[in-house]
Amino acid sequence: MSDPAGSGAVGVVLVSHSRDVADAVARLAVALSGGTGGRLVAAAGGAGDGGIGTSSELIVAAARRVDRGAGVVVVADLGSAVLTVRALIVDEEDEDPGGSSGEGTLPPGTRLVDAPFLEGAVAAVVTAGAGAPLDDVVRAAEDAYTYRKL
Amino acid sequence: MAELDTGFFVRWLTRTASAVDREADRLTELDAVIGDADHGSNLRRGFTAVTAALAEKPPPSPGAALGLAGRTLVSKVGGASGPLYGTLLRRAGKELGDAATVSRDDLARALTAGVEAVSALGGAAEGDKTMLDALLPAARALPESFTAARRAATEGAVGTVPLRARRGRASYLGDRSIGHEDPGAASALVLVAALEQTWEAADE
């Protein structure tokens, strides 16, 4: 691929209870990727009204924004952020009786990674920015748990 | 056994919405002690949206009513109760399929599947001081009667008081979570009590 951070690259969505945290971690990750991850990452922080919380609408919109057909990796912080993403992923696999769940669902192949938020975000954005495929981006983010500090 | 139709399910969900609205302050107060003081307001926002969605797009079947309510809760709540209650209702709705009417036994089976999905989503088990402590006994008792289910949910919710939280924000408190009713179990009781009331109102 001539443009590793362009079409066909894996997208990364950062879901935090706080808009400030999600935006700041996204900026940090892009900076540490040498700028290559800039167009691949989207932050979905806070509740829809800008307060502390989780918004499935912001998460879905962010995932669609960074989806280039190569998959989307979601890194989430805690509690409802994790549960909301997991419920949305089940949503994408399931259809309810009497009505599709098409609107408001994540792009196909979206994966929630089991990773610490900041370290996982940096690892995912750096590897996605280098043009790595979905499995490698997931593995890099999940490996972040093994970076010991002592 | 009398069959439950789509209207019954819509009345159950709207009755739940009214009860959540009335109980929201109490749920938030319970949550303020061991959680983050948003349970009542989050559920109120979610169930207000459920009532609106049911009115705007009348569901064609009991399963569709639960599915629509569940999807609405996932998208509107903004706290952990959204994906948890949303998963409960969506999974139960899926279990009911497209049937125009269902029996109480069908509903018991569907709720059991829903509760299992909640357990898988949140990783909690009975005794962890969560909504499951009211929902699991209620689903087990529902084949007997709606009243038995509500009684079981009541006992389950009250039974969370001496438990130590093992899931969610309250789990960070460790032993300090002991002695307080779990807000999720309290709101689960609201849902089950509304089911009993809907049945009694239909029976009159």
Automatic annotation (TrEMBL), chain A:
PTS EIIA type-4 domain boundaries: 9-150
Keywords from the named record: Transferase
Pfam families cross-referenced by the UniProt entry: EIIA-man
Signal sequence extent: none
Key word Transferase present: yes
Highest rank taxon of the organism: Bacteria
Name listed for the protein in its UniProt record: PTS fructose transporter subunit IIA
Species per Swiss-Prot/TrEMBL record: Streptomyces bohaiensis
